[in-house]
Amino acid sequence: METRSQTSDNGDITDTGKSACPVENSTAELTHNSEKELRNALGKIAESYDELHNISVIQQAKNYYQLPLGSYNSTIKAIFQSAEVALQNLIRLTRLASCKIAQDDINSAMKYVKWSRGFHQLLESLGSAAFNIQTYFPAQCVQRTARLSIKDSPTLKEYVFVVSEFESIFEAKFLSKTEKNNLLNTIGLTSHEDVVYSIVHSLRILVHDAVKWESDLTDVMVEPGLPSYNELVATELLKTAIDTANLEAETYYPMFVALHQIPEILSAEVNDHTERAILYVRSEELSLAQEQLSMSVKLMEPLVKAQTVMVDCLATGEYHYLRENLGPASGMHSLAIRQHMFRDLFCSFWKELELWITKGGGSLESKLNEICLARHSDSSNGESYALINTAIQLHQSFQKWRHEHLNMPRNCLGSGGTKSMIGIPDGLDMVKKMRDASNTFPSLKLFYEAMNLKLTSQEQDALLTAHHLADMSLDSQLIELTGHVTREVFPEVQKKDVCPFRSSHPVRKP
Q1: Contact, 299 vs 277, CB < 8 A?
Q2: How does pLDDT run across 300-312, given as a tens digit for each residue?
Q3: Angle at CA 49, nearest 5°, toward 299 and 395?
Q4: Per-residue confidence at 331, pLDDT binned at 50, 70, 90?
Q5: 83 alpha carbon, distance to own chain's centre
Q6: Cα gap 140→154, rounded to integer Å
Q7: Whole-angstrom Cα distance, residue 286 to residue 387?
Q8: What is the average pLDDT score of the chain?
Q9: What percent of the chain has pLDDT over 70?
Q10: What is the C-alpha to C-alpha distance for residues 279 and 2, in angstroms, rounded to an integer?
Q11: pLDDT tens by residue, 9-31
Q12: Quick one: pLDDT at residue 501?
């Protein structure tokens, strides 16, 4: 994902860090329209993170049919809303791939099919989360349950139609009497260096993935009393949020936005679960707290997957092409992710856990040792241990997110003092500092030390890591070259003074 850095504990937010077919230089002279919108040759330049990703509409979709925060039904709803965003983008990608094949632009078609494969992988992760979360269904032994199914999605029905159109165009191009033997030779005699083979391979994989996610998102248990699929998921609102993510040229901007919108939906749900877990710890309802954290752990898997899809599909030059249109939001994360999930609620939860364990006196280390040793012989200690273990798992999910978070600045900004869009001296260095700073919270450190666990994302003296971190290693040279390219494309950014963003939103304290 993009990068966003937190420079202090009082809400000061700073920023680091364009996507598509590199044609014209998008850093053309800026203009203002009659409404004073800042624009360039590609279209509107976003003025904020919320505007870029249509967060207000995403929030409206969350609130369209009100459900108790952090409830089982709200969790399933968030998963299906995320699936809707993915499906809307698959419709767009499949249409573009069809168009490119019809135009004999097979290289571009291959790129869109690769993006489609990535969204199928994300849907598979969402499906797995939905299936696994059903183990927390509050009335699974009761026969009167309702079901929510992706087959009721009008977006899925439209996608099936668009896939049929694509297949007809593909068959006309590659399976005609005159071309069928060529495709046979391509499949049997070539490999991934052949662009047509790459398309065929990706098509086979995404169809295979679709079988799994469609099954996992069909007949998902929900509590009775929910409205129709469209009303619950707010499909029209989500379509509005997605359709407005466009520039006036063919770019990967819409997919870039979508891979931020999905984490927005999921992180808001993770936050609600974390807040409920804090309240349950406070009232010593540990089994309920553990269940809330477990659902968050499962939601983090597709949240992380959204980052890996973007990094895998988006080339450096493609990002540069639309970087300017991301505006000052480039390199930032939202209130929900950066301030609430990774700061407010994170700190509050670990502090609450420390207070609960040390209540009545004694060191955290001795109390944890007692819980761990007696976890199988004493049900109370077993319940306590399950909660602590799940809390560690959730933090490791955050660690995984932060690790993947480094890939965008590594691949698209580079090193050597490449400034972010708001003048941070080195975007990649700032993200590394964010990652390391995330593990300095005192309560978190106490738990890891007491349980003799490592609290780090990187071993400086590890053999392979040390090799790659060396100044003249191939990786270091590639990152430096990436930084050189970025600075050459955006010389005006290198002249910017630091202008950090500040969040005036209050701390989320349960």
Answers
A1: no
A2: 999 999 999 999 9
A3: 30
A4: low
A5: 13
A6: 28
A7: 7
A8: 88
A9: 89
A10: 32
A11: 322 223 333 333 332 222 333 34
A12: 56
Q: Residues 349, 271: contact at Cβ < 8 Å?
A: no
pLDDT tens-place string over residues 352-395: 999 999 998 889 999 999 999 999 999 999 999 999 999 999 99
Q: Mean pLDDT throughout 485-510?
A: 82
Enumerate residues 6+ apart whose C-beta is below 8 A from 357: 364, 367, 368, 371, 384
d(CA 147, CA 160): 22
Cα–Cα distances (Å) from 369 to 305, 320, 388, 396, in that order, read 35, 51, 12, 21
What is the residue type of 506?
Answer: P
pTM: 0.90
DSSP string, 202-225: HHHHHHHHHHHHHHHTSSEEE-S-
Question: What CA–CA distance (Å, rounded) separates 72 from 276?
Answer: 12
Whether the Cβ atoms of residue 34 and residue 240 lie closer than 8 Å to each other: no
Q: Running DSSP on this structure, what letter comes out for residue 493? A: G
Which DSSP symbol is given to 39? E
Tokens read off for 23: 């044609």
Q: Quick one: tokens of 415?
A: 């090193």
3-state secondary structure of 68: coil
**C-alpha–C-alpha distance, residues 245 and 251, integer Å:** 11
> For the chain, what's the residue count?
510
Give the SS3 label for residue 165: helix
261 forms beta bridges with: none
For residue 54, which amino acid is it?
A: N
Write b or e for each residue in 249-283: b if 16 or more Cβ atoms lie within 10 A of its Cβ, otherwise e: bebbbbbbbbbbbbbbbbbbbbbbbbbbbbebbee
